[in-house]
Amino acid sequence: MQNSDSIRPYASLPENSRGRLLKEPESKNRTAFQRDRDRIIHSVAFRRLQYKTQVFVYHEGDHFRTRLTHSLEVAQIARSLSRTLGVNEDLAETIALAHDLGHTPFGHAGEDALHEMMLPFDGFDHNEQTFRVVTQLERRYADFNGLNLSWESLEGIAKHNGPVAGPLSKEAIVPESMRKYCTNAIDLELASFAGLEAQIAAISDDIAYNNHDIDDGIRAGLFKVGDLLDLPVVGDIFREVEQRYPNVGQESLVHEAVRRLVDHMISDVLAETGRRLEQAMPQSVIDVRAQPQALVAFSDQFKLAEKELRAFLFGRMYRHEKVKEMRERVKQVVRNLFSHYSEHPEGLPDYWRLEAGTKLTKRSARLIADYIAGMTDRYAFEQHRQIFNLDFEIK
């Protein structure tokens, strides 16, 4: 358990939470943030992550990351960073576990295809979809739809990548579901940065996927250890491990190098974040939200190394012919499913069919997107096989 003496004044405290949209009695045994975390873990959307792609489609091997294992890795890193920085571990873990709930089947390939089909209806974005999941689409409770999370958890889910409105936002348009929620329900202050816990969850996501993509890429044979040696920081770490353990097998070598690289990234974040905190001197989480930049960050020096690593992974992994071929195949599965349900809404399950109606409107298109986004890889394949009598999986 986190030591209360180590909590800094700029941490988010559950006893100071701004509460939930629907008031609920407080738990005698868990804080508000612990309850939020548990609701995420017990959600249907979280269980589905087990069979949703990270990079490789689920049937390509049992040892590659899925959205579920990725989310668990992000949560572990987030807890470690939060403990060292003296902010709330439970809130950081909650946001980390929730951050990918809105992902489609087939990873970013599925998201790209669904966005393409939804362009006439304001498009599709997995971050907005995550917000829809936790505020609307989960239907497990008698008193409300969604998970009725605390204000701080919702803020972190909405803004973990930074402000989504105003001059500091990277987005041109505020996602509709967030805009409507803040207009009609609770103001999440979309133009400001979130608390440190959400910022920690976001950078933990970067640390996790950069490192597990190295591991999975080598495991899949898309590139070799030798191909990494010219990369700054990454190459130095792999060379150091090779020199120290000249007779170790490749699996152990890669694991040891990736372990050290994770540690290097965490150390860099802690040093840079410590520098920014010392400069900003926030005395409360309100001060954190008022900053003109994120306080949790990599150093400028490591950002350059990370940029080169991402460029390498983009060229050698995400654009590898094997991955590109599967991407195009699964994108067509999503396109076909969307087109079919748009033309034949009677093929949707009962709830979705009744809500969608008989004509394709913006509302019904969003419901179809909700339904497809909730599918796992294998369920999407199975639906596609039943509808079109086509087998895209075993090629």
TrEMBL record:
<dbReference type="InterPro" id="IPR026875">
    <property type="entry name" value="PHydrolase_assoc_dom"/>
</dbReference>
<dbReference type="InterPro" id="IPR050135">
    <property type="entry name" value="dGTPase-like"/>
</dbReference>
<dbReference type="InterPro" id="IPR006675">
    <property type="entry name" value="HDIG_dom"/>
</dbReference>
<dbReference type="InterPro" id="IPR023023">
    <property type="entry name" value="dNTPase_2"/>
</dbReference>
<dbReference type="Pfam" id="PF01966">
    <property type="entry name" value="HD"/>
</dbReference>
<feature type="domain" description="HD">
    <location>
        <begin position="67"/>
        <end position="210"/>
    </location>
</feature>
<dbReference type="InterPro" id="IPR006261">
    <property type="entry name" value="dGTPase"/>
</dbReference>
<feature type="region of interest" description="Disordered">
    <location>
        <begin position="1"/>
        <end position="31"/>
    </location>
</feature>
<protein>
    <recommendedName>
        <fullName>Deoxyguanosinetriphosphate triphosphohydrolase-like protein</fullName>
    </recommendedName>
</protein>
<dbReference type="InterPro" id="IPR006674">
    <property type="entry name" value="HD_domain"/>
</dbReference>
<dbReference type="InterPro" id="IPR003607">
    <property type="entry name" value="HD/PDEase_dom"/>
</dbReference>
<feature type="compositionally biased region" description="Basic and acidic residues">
    <location>
        <begin position="17"/>
        <end position="31"/>
    </location>
</feature>
<comment type="similarity">
    <text>Belongs to the dGTPase family. Type 2 subfamily.</text>
</comment>
<keyword id="KW-0378">Hydrolase</keyword>
<dbReference type="Pfam" id="PF13286">
    <property type="entry name" value="HD_assoc"/>
</dbReference>
